[in-house]
From TrEMBL:
Residues that, per the record, bind ATP: G152, G153, P154, G155, T156, G157, K158, T159
Gene Ontology molecular function, alphabetical: exodeoxyribonuclease V activity
Protein's UniProt name: RecBCD enzyme subunit RecD
Note: In the RecBCD complex, RecB has a slow 3'-5' helicase, an exonuclease activity and loads RecA onto ssDNA, RecD has a fast 5'-3' helicase activity, while RecC stimulates the ATPase and processivity of the RecB helicase and contributes to recognition of the Chi site.
Source taxonomy: Bacteria, Pseudomonadati, Pseudomonadota, Betaproteobacteria, Neisseriales
Gene3D superfamilies: P-loop containing nucleotide triphosphate hydrolases
Pfam families linked to this entry: AAA_19, UvrD_C_2
Annotated organism of origin: Leeia speluncae
Amino acid sequence: MQAELQTVTEFPEQITKVLSLLAQIDNPVVEALILRLANSLQEGHVCLHLSTDEINDLSHRHQSINGLIGSPTEFTPLILDGHKLYFHRYWLYEDRFANQLCKRLNQQSANVDEAQIKLLLNKLFANKLDDIDWQKVAVAAASLSNFTIISGGPGTGKTSTVLRLLLLLQGLAKQPLTIRLAAPTGKAAARMGEGMRNAIQKLPSDAQAELKPILETLPTQAETLHRLLGPNGHRFTHHALYPLSLDVLVVDEASMIDQAMMYHLFEALPPSATVILLGDKDQLSSVDAGSVFSDLCEKTLISPANATRLSEITDYQIPANPVGNQNMHPVQNDMFSDIEFTESNTYDALLAQQVQVLKHSYRFASVPGIGALANAILAQDLSALNPVFEVHPSLVWQKNAEYEDMLGSLAERFQPYFEVINDSLINDPTIWMNTVDQFRVLTALKDGPYGALGINRALERRFQLKHWIRPTTQNGRSIYHGLLIMVVQNDYQSGLFNGDVGIVQQDQQTGKWHARFPQIDADWKSIPLNRLPDWVPAWAMTIHKSQGSEFDHVAIVLPNQFSPIINRSLLYTAVTRAKQNVTLWGKQNIVFEGVKNHPKRMSGLADRLNRVT
Ligand SMILES: Nc1ncnc2c1ncn2[C@@H]1O[C@H](COP(=O)(O)OP(=O)(O)OP(=O)(O)O)[C@@H](O)[C@H]1O
């Protein structure tokens, strides 16, 4: 699958030529259109919106588009659906996913025992709050449905909430449920498992004792979506005809799932399974085309009937359509201030009621600087940015630094790591990884001096000057003991996936080189360098690649000229990768322009869901 997608997204010109040749088209206007579509896919859009004039123009070129562009019922390489032009495969992904979702939204709450739910909820949320406990509301709403989205920023309690939801579902079930946890990348899956184990530890001790038999049935390890679906060449083992064997699936970091993977996932789900997607709708969308999670989170509403039902179950007075509620972010309030809830019978109205948004960050209560900066970015409040940096010592903004000074400062931050990696008495890769995860450089761009590749090269030169590393060449690549690498390709043979981060090590006895990777459910994996899939150094990584990871201190490096790639979601994602400190290296006008820039990816999902049930 990955290889096929790369053909379209990475080589737009070639795809245009091949399609034109296949359809025997020799028409520059049509060729330009295919190229525009391929380029927009590369930018993350699922489709291309055509104007009425462009559509009229196409219909006049009937001869030249015959066999190339067809309606949704035709089998042509390109599909024109209303005003939206798709590559056939993406039209199919979006259409089938929407159908699966609509089926799920249609089979809501059959025979739920609301009295039993209320009883268990009160055990799981023993403290009655003065204000509405939105975590409790989220669990209550999710227990009435087989599809739920829980969106929230870092530390808003998504994992704690989903743990209580799983305890509730398992407590209600007549037979023990098969529950599985998954995430788009290995790193995100590892963090999800760790989060679950922490959340269990943090349950009040009386609840832990009382719920012990149920707790023992819950998974505390998560797997990657690829592993869950079962890689099988370029396809997956599980699909509509051979669905997954599970009752409940929880997927974390769902904002990272692209349209293609979302389609494959929903195709492989048994119709009776309950699905819970967790994520942060404000984060960057997936690397590949689509912004499915944020599209699904576009509206969040509580109908009057649902408000009554949830009030009864939770013992809080839940307002219908809670516009202006403290729990909602100002941006969100603005977004919904003109939406009045009508008992609409469209799928998007059904979906809006399955979207639970958590807003209070427990994590940022102790590190308020990061929370304040993240909120200022989300609210696109430029006037708040400078004051936020002035007030919080955990935040530093280097607006006018020279390039070399910046590199010097970034390199210094890796000193603690090289001290442990070069200490022959410290041979524990977990200590190495924990030390290197204290600091990471995140870049907006991939290429150029301010991109991840350029910064990595420059940092390596500095590491060498400081005698922290002694590079040698193998298979044409510079390697050294302690080199931090990121895999940039899925490789089923080695079990390594795009985004996996490992450490290169030379065996002291044999002198052989290996890269070691932390495993979700096993010891460290050791792979000889010549068997590694394609990789890059990872002292600096793009913000896109950093999704699903967290570091104590994050340095965000922006280029010295504005690039449209810098936008609100990118900056928010970068800032929220930090647990303690953020150093922002970028000119003020570039940061301001980036915060104001909030593009939306094109897709037809909203239109498809805006259908009558
Ligand atoms: N209702 C609550 N009251 C007090 N503390 C809470 C509550 N909910 C969550 N926390 C605490 O907040 C922290 C973050 O919670 P949790 O890990 O569930 O959030 P998360 O949204 O999953 O975080 P992340 O974005 O890092 O995955 C944890 O220390 C947790 O114990």
